[in-house]
Amino acid sequence: MGEFSAQWLALREPVDHAARSARVRDVLLADLRKRHGEQLSGLSILDLGCGSGSNLRAIAPHLGGQQRWCLVDYDDALLDAARLALKAWAHVVVSETTDSLQIMYGDRDIEITFRSADLSGDLQTVLAWPADLVSASALFDLVSRQWVDRFCDALRTPLYAVLSFDGQMQWEPEHPFDQTVRQAFCMHQATDKGFGAALGPSSGRYLCDALKQRAFEVTIDKSPWQIEDLPSAFHDMLIDGIAHAVLETGSLGEADMDTWLAYHRRASLCLIGHDDLYASVP
Questions:
Q1: What is the DSSP string of the chain?
Q2: pLDDT tens, 36-65?
Q3: Sign of CA dihedral 152, 38, 47, 3
Q4: Cβ burial, residue 249 (10 Å; 0-12/13-18/19+)
């Protein structure tokens, strides 16, 4: 679950897209129309921790005919994966250079720049790049309170932050170890992910409060993964990742963890909670 391989990101993308809060997205679109006109054309979007470009594929079809995206990640392999995935998603590849791509998706003309940056150290520089919207998916549960405070102090544009883990985790049918696994995984999520002690499941609440303290108008809503088509490669990779994290905490031994894994590979429902958030600038 915390592994950012191209394979994992590809498996989770349809689940992510289905989970996104329509209410938060509608607030985002309404606010952008007030600021930029009904057509929403010509917008520049800065996507932080872009992974394989899933955020662009989720949002771009709702925006105007002309779009400029800057995809930022620290992992060059993920930037390469984003380029390949976007070329496969596009209806037409118009042009391509070493650090950019222009595609058509329907009548959307999308210019994409790929930028490598370490958000733990280059945050101020990255947020100074021109943008009408900053977006991020599954990022804020990885960062620290101090990083969020610096981010909010520097933010000058609306923010669309989706799929921050909120600590909710359940399966049907239940297993006696479920609560122990959930607590251990939440504990693991709060360890250092490269930005200091991570906010983990408290990230949505903390980000919301930090933005409100700086006069942003914030809309927040739940966006849970609801996985019913089981078993699946996505679910197998999800519970394997959870088990790996739990074993690192020492909360369960390998034999108990194997029992839990075998039981939930036959689950009929898996629900993993997230928060989606939109913040409008004062």
A1: -----HHHHHHHHHHHHHHS-HHHHHHHHHHHHHHH-TT--SEEEEEET-TTTHHHHHHGGGS-SEEEEEEEES-HHHHHHHHHHHHHH-SEEEEE-SSEEEEEETTEEEEEEEEE--TTTSHHHHHTS--SEEEEES-TTSS-HHHHHHHHHH--S-EEEEEEEEEEEEEES--TTHHHHHHHHHHHHTSBSSSSB--GGGHHHHHHHHHHHTT-EEEEEE--EEE-S-S-HHHHHHHHHHHHHHHHHTSS-HHHHHHHHHHHTT-SEEEEEEEEEEEE--
A2: 999 999 999 999 999 999 999 999 999 999
A3: positive
A4: middle
* Tens digit of each residue's pLDDT (9 = 90 or more) over 65-74: 999 999 999 9
Please check whether residue 272 is in contact with residue 186, taking contact to mean a CB–CB distance below 8 angstroms.
no
Tens digit of each residue's pLDDT (9 = 90 or more) over 249-261: 999 999 999 999 9
Q: Which residues lie closer than 8 Å to 278 by C-beta, 6 or more apart?
A: 24, 25, 27, 28, 31, 158, 159, 160, 161, 218, 219, 220
CA distance 66 to 262: 49
Domain 6-280, CATH number (from 3.30.1340.30, 3.30.200.20, 1.10.10.10, 3.40.50.150): 3.40.50.150
Q: Which residues pair with 145 in a beta bridge?
A: none
Q: Which two tokens stand for residue 269?
A: 């429902």
- Distance between CA atoms of residues 53 and 226, nearest Å: 22
- Rounded distance between C-alpha atoms, residue 64 and residue 40, angstroms: 4
User: What confidence score (pLDDT) does residue 4 get?
Assistant: 59
